[in-house]
Design a protein that fits this description.
single chain, about 350 residues, FAD/NAD(P)-binding domain, six-stranded mixed sheet, about 30% helix, NAD(P)/FAD-dependent oxidoreductase, FAD, NAD(P)H dehydrogenase (quinone) activity, FAD/NAD-binding_dom, NADH-Q_oxidoreductase
């Protein structure tokens, strides 16, 4: 039996798997390797950290199929020369084709003490640990969130609405959500002002100590510090001796495999693509990888070019009632984007659950 090994059951890995299952050749076994036994809706990890959503409501079983097996393990090393994946505490796995979808990690930008003294929402386990830390704090405790992008804003909003903590949101730019239109930024800032969330712009975090944030060199005490200030490819990918872009993401061919190895694909946050990493982008790329694989299995000639990956937009939550977003270049604020996001999540979860039945 030939082996297709998929590293990571995130949005990209899950979409590849669900897309190829109806087309699997009889002589192919698919092995999915992930640290956890479920696919999780990572875009909602901020709500787990805030304690407003239980992790079980975000978990989706991986597809059940006789030619698909799951290995719950941590990837230790990828040996591209010998077609092997090394796992912690387990025997190495050989592959004929490999899909690397290991996702991302926090990027601490070489800020001293940031990794040691801050909490995270990058994984399900880290999000749960962050919640454990937050839920034991008394009313009025001071929380620092470092990073004013989508994750930081959603976490700050969820905590502001669901707790009586004092939230400070640090951002290095002139405005939070810098990639969004001014209408969206102003709406979010007004919402934060109403909820008494302190937004600290043009911040320069020079050091983190235990319960202390140094902004422009000045110490500010907090009871808990959460880092949401950027991501980088998984450490396994960072150690691979392959061509990468300036952000450490792997450079790929037009068919999403390594330029010099058409048996190794990369999907999601570790791939160098034209758009910033997102769940939507990972799923769009995954569908194209599935198309390339199924075309090969059926002996079909691949087209000269794959179509551009179409992104529908971005939606964010400000608590449970309102939100913001950008759909087809149209800025949205208020209840409508929150309702749309809720509907998208419901649809996505039910669609994935049907695949696993």
């Amino acid at each position: 039996m030939k082996k297709l090994v998929i590293l990571g059951g995130g949005y990209g890995g899950m979409r590849v798997l669900s897309s190829i299952i109806p087309h699997l050749p009889y002589d192919l076994m698919v092995i999915l390797i992930d640290k956890v036994p479920f696919h999780f809706l990572k875009t909602e990890y901020y709500a787990i950290a805030a304690g407003t959503v239980h992790d079980k409501s975000l978990q989706i079983p991986f597809p059940n199929h006789p030619q698909v097996s799951l290995i719950q393990a941590e990837v230790e090393k990828i040996d591209l020369h010998n077609n092997k994946v090394w796992l912690t505490g387990k025997n190495p796995i050989e592959y004929d084709d490999l899909i690397i979808g290991l996702g991302c990690e926090d990027n601490y930008h070489q800020v001293e003490g940031a990794e040691k003294y801050t909490h995270s929402i990058q994984t399900i386990s880290k999000s749960k640990r962050t919640h454990k830390q937050l839920r034991h704090l008394p009313e009025g405790a001071k929380i620092a969130i470092i990073g004013g992008g989508l994750s930081g804003v959603e976490l700050a909003a969820e905590l502001a609405e669901s707790s009586k903590l004092q939230i400070s949101l640090f951002d290095r730019g002139d405005a939070i959500l810098s990639s969004y239109p001014k209408k969206v930024r102003n709406y979010v800032e007004r919402w934060f002002k109403d909820k008494k969330v302190i937004v600290i712009k043009n911040s320069v975090i020079t050091r983190i100590e235990e319960d202390i944030v140094y902004n422009h060199g000045s110490p500010i005490p907090f009871d808990c510090i959460v880092w949401t200030a950027g991501i980088q490819p998984n450490k396994i990918v960072r150690t691979l001796d392959v061509e990468k872009d300036k952000k450490g993401r792997i450079t790929l061919s037009k068919y999403h495999h390594l330029p010099n190895n058409d048996r190794v694909f990369v999907v999601g946050d570790c791939a160098s693509l034209k758009h910033p990493p997102s769940a939507q982008l990972a799923e769009g790329q995954a569908e194209q990888i599935a198309f390339v694989l199924t075309s090969r299995w059926k002996g079909k000639v691949l087209p000269d070019h794959l179509p551009p990956i179409k992104l529908k937009g971005v939606l964010g939550s400000l608590g449970k009632k309102v939100g913001f977003g950008l759909i087809a270049k149209t800025a949205l604020t208020g209840r409508i984007p929150r309702l749309i996001k809720h509907g998208v999540l419901w649809k996505d979860k039910n669609k994935k659950n049907k695949i696993t039945d």
